[in-house]
Specification:
By secondary structure, this protein is α/β, with parallel strands linked by helices. The chain is 40% helix and 13% strand.
């Protein structure tokens, strides 16, 4: 999304050659300055170039591609015939719904019509909306191809084709649909591939179907917004749920997005939190689209304090005033961690991300920190942490004892501490040093032999 009147440095949208009707909607939505990705991408797209772009999650990519394509259609003159001109593909229903909601007021401002096509919806109703006239189509891949093959959409008339969250398209197995749509697309149409992470597979797809191609990268892979404070809590696996409940209650979090790897775990953790009288919603792939939509909207309205979700909610979803993201575990796909964390600290606002890690996740944690390019700050709570974590001490510097001077160490020297103040392994022998110094050494075996001979 675009930036909502934050203090980051930027330029006004009017400086990017955006027309008055669109500027008016930006003002109504309290969007003021363009984010870095908007500043870079909007002029390039207005110039008509094909682009593959990557920027960190929450940086405003949606408006970065919507505004220039709407501006180009508006600048071309009054639209007399409403047929698809802008085609946006998104991997999940939730993301498609969100892009559609963002696009509607801007489309209406320039007399354009938007329509949403997604699995789970009624195809007959979608077909009727297409026939009544639609300039902007936002769709999930499979449903989009169904309408194209049924000739409800003339794909050759598309002027601007946008693939959002392209790397997720591969992860979810949609590359076949993408290739079929690309093959049907006119070579004259402007093509835009957008994602938080640009993988080699995405680059290969882009180079196959898009020529010439401009590449824009604003952040390196693994980059997390500076507005997000991260904390890592080592925890014994059997105590994860208890630590989770304690963190939520002790910090008085009002809105928590909790990520877990598996659907079954989402249901179990949600049930546990409900026992503590928390209002909890669930969002995962086995729930119907209507159930997921209901849970997400209720969470946004504040009816749920906690939303327990799998990585289906990690991409693109914009949730205002989100206090914290908590990772109950580390995701299978390491880059999904970046997307999870990116649900908070969006549009220049401060955010917090907490990750719970048990000893059996150590290897995954090490791999994750390589992707991130550094270690996450560790906080150790003795009641919940495993033994190996307790041995490392506390992260909070205020709890560390002050270092003694050389003279202080000398005065307080005790057995088991070397001159340099470094601990060595203490043995039982240390406790009897004074006794051993006063008593002459004897051979116990000789004493025992003497005693036995005397008895004889």
């Amino acid at each position: 999304m675009a930036t909502k009147k934050t203090e980051h440095s930027g330029i006004p949208f009017s400086a990017l050659k955006i027309s008055e009707p669109l500027l008016k909607v930006l003002d109504e939505k309290a969007y003021s300055l363009a984010t870095p990705v908007q500043k870079r991408l909007i002029p390039v797209l207005l110039d008509g170039r094909n682009v593959i772009v990557s920027a960190q999650t929450g940086s405003g990519k949606t408006l970065a591609f919507l505004l220039p394509v709407l501006e180009k259609i508006y600048a071309a003159g009054e639209v007399k015939h409403h047929y698809p001109k802008v085609f946006v593909l998104s991997p999940t229903k939730e993301l498609a719904q969100q892009i559609y909601e963002v696009a509607k007021p801007f489309a209406a401002a320039v007399d354009l019509r938007a329509v949403l096509l997604q699995g789970g919806g009624r195809r007959t109703a979608e077909t009727a909306r297409l026939k009544s006239g639609a300039d902007i189509v936002v769709a999930t891949p499979q449903r989009a191809l169904e309408h194209i093959e049924a000739r409800h959409i003339d794909i050759r008339s598309i002027q601007h084709f946008i693939v959002d969250e392209a790397d997720m398209m591969f992860d979810m197995g949609f590359v076949g649909y993408l290739e079929k749509i690309f093959e049907k697309m006119s070579p004259r149409s402007q093509k835009i591939i957008v994602s938080a992470t640009i993988t080699p597979r995405v680059v290969k797809l882009a180079k196959t179907y898009i020529k010439p191609l401009t590449r824009i990268e604003l952040d390196p892979p693994g980059k997390i917004a500076d507005t997000i404070t991260q904390m890592l809590y080592p925890v014994v696996r059997s105590k994860k749920e208890a630590l989770l409940a304690w963190l939520i209650s002790s910090n008085h979090f009002e809105k928590v997005l909790l990520f877990v790897r598996k659907k079954e775990l989402a249901d179990g953790v949600a049930a546990y939190l409900r026992e503590w009288n928390y209002k909890v919603g669930i969002l995962h792939g086995e729930r119907s689209h209507q159930e997921r939509k209901k849970s997400l909207n209720a969470f946004r309205r504040g009816e749920y304090q906690i939303l327990v979700a799998t990585d289906i909610a990690a991409r693109g979803l914009d949730i205002s005033d989100l206090d914290v993201v908590i990772n109950y575990d580390i995701p299978h796909v390491k880059h999904d961690f970046i997307h999870r964390v990116g649900r908070t600290g969006r549009a220049g606002k401060e955010g917090m991300a907490i990750t719970l890690v048990s000893p059996d996740e150590t290897e995954q944690l090490n791999d994750l920190q390589k992707v991130l390019g550094g270690k996450i700050k560790e906080v150790i709570l003795p009641e919940y942490a495993p033994k190996e974590a307790k041995a490392r001490g506390y992260f909070l510097s205020a709890l560390r004892p002050k270092r003694k001077t050389a003279s202080q160490r000398k005065r307080t020297e005790t057995p088991g501490i070397t001159q340099k103040g470094k601990k060595r392994k203490t043995t039982k022998r240390d406790g009897f040093k004074a006794f051993d110094a006063a008593k002459p050494k004897t051979d116990k075996r000789k004493d025992s032999r003497r005693g036995s001979r005397g008895k004889k």
